[in-house]
Amino acid sequence: MNAPARTPDASSSAPSSPLGALSELVQDALDAGMSLRRLGERAIDPETGESISWQYFQKLVKNPPASPPDPSQMRALAAALDKPYRRIQEATAKQWLQYEATELAGYDAEVRIIVGHLAGKPKAELMQWRMMIEAAERAQREADE
Questions:
Q1: Is residue 111 within 8 Å of residue 104, measured between CB atoms?
Q2: pTM for the complete prediction?
Q3: Which end of the chain is more exposed for a tag (fewer CB within 10 A), N or C?
Q4: Which residues, including other chains, have CB under 8 Å from residue 85's CB and lie 6 or more apart?
């Protein structure tokens, strides 16, 4: 019996990869010339001093563990991969929870709170907030001229 092939997600423009998001970050570092041993040497959580071994990196790309890394491990991964902690959190959430968030660039934390608050609101209310934000941006640009 043949199982039907999965249809790719039409909303995703990136080709699908057998690796999860965090595993891809590790594979990218390896592809760029970083060795597993070097990653292990660099993988030290700056807050707790805890480290993770090069074998953990190997596992991430070959046979990812069933459970996600904890915060200390994520900080160590961030140090080893020279990536922001937030980027490691996002990749971890995507790989283990199938959760993906879109980052707003150029705004402060208050705008993120507004966007989170607006999730699930009726379209009319979303349009109202968008127009208010755009009006504020226009006013700022005009004031800067």
A1: yes
A2: 0.63
A3: N
A4: 74, 75, 78
